[in-house]
């Protein structure tokens, strides 16, 4: 590990030197690429240098103690410094193990979240709306921007389906484990006898694909325009600006109707199409890996039940890591940090165990 860290430190220094070269400074694209690499390596290098400093302090303190001839007070002081330096070096060593874990190449990307109502009819559609609100409120606390791409509303204000983008550095890293079936247990507003109903909502989280990730032939696309429809409000207009794109080779269909401009709707629909095709390829590759481990935090399969929201008990349970929090209202108001951090910690622990 030490040799690998020395190599990373050397690369970090080399990149910083290259960034100061006139020809690099004149090339904005190259300058951006190098700056991005430096930013990725910087946390590792900073911790590594702190680790080396702690190790040096420990070695110097030990050398003083080994020499002997120290008076009692000074010896105690040096012994204390040695213990502190060793503890610090050990903590930093653990941090380095985590920092050196393979990074998900999609972590920094924007995401497309697709929420669909499942079992439960109107109650499921209403809860889809609750989850949409929860995610957009959480995105706001993270400094991310959200934007609706497609929405199929119900008369009571729920969603049979809603797709939206979340844009911001690291958005995928915070949302990637939300894919799966979310179950809600509560008394529906339409229930007159106060009986608890269980409904389900499916969430899919896709990293936004870049143009270079997926090569789509225009000849493989069937593009239809139609008039926006829904329960009313911003999704209604009087022109055929809504877009439906069908990718004929895969049968993938994407609709976008949130913008009044046909061009903008097509642009958004193409982003989703690329992301869905990229995700399908990723799933195919994962399935092809022999003996693929079923991660503690789940497979990310949208058919896997991952979480239950129980209104009568005011609790949220994540079934993948066995965590129950009695703060339902806060979570539904976007306070997802504790829950998501726990899932990320469990994933890191699994990767460290494998390593």
What would your notes on this structure say?
The chain has 355 residues and is α+β, with helices and mostly antiparallel strands. The protein is built from nine helices and eleven strands. The chain has helices spanning 2-19, 22-25, 28-67, 72-99, 122-141, 171-175, 262-288, 328-332, 337-354, and strands spanning 111-117, 145-153, 159-167, 180-186, 197-207, 221-226, 242-247, 252-256, 305-310, 315-318, 323-325. The strands form two sheets. The chain has an eight-stranded mixed beta sheet with strand order 2-3-1-5-4-9-10-11, with helices on both faces. It is flat and about 85 Å long.
Summarize the structure.
The protein has 355 residues and is an alpha+beta fold. It has helices at 2-19, 22-25, 28-67, 72-99, 122-141, 171-175, 262-288, 328-332, 337-354; strands spanning 111-117, 145-153, 159-167, 180-186, 197-207, 221-226, 242-247, 252-256, 305-310, 315-318, 323-325.
Strand order of the largest sheet: 2-3-1-5-4-9-10-11
| Biggest sheet features | 8 strands, mixed
Determine the number of helices (DSSP H or I, runs of at least 4 residues): 9
Runs with pLDDT <50, length 5+?
Answer: 231-238, 288-296
The termini sit apart by: 12 Å
How much is the radius of gyration in Å? 26 Å
Please outline the helices and strands.
Layout: H1 2-19, H2 22-25, H3 28-67, H4 72-99, E1 111-117, H5 122-141, E2 145-153, E3 159-167, H6 171-175, E4 180-186, E5 197-207, E6 221-226, E7 242-247, E8 252-256, H7 262-288, E9 305-310, E10 315-318, E11 323-325, H8 328-332, H9 337-354
Parallel strand pairs: 4-9
Antiparallel strand pairs: 1-3, 1-5, 2-3, 4-5, 6-7, 7-8, 9-10, 10-11
Helix pairs in contact: 1-3, 3-4
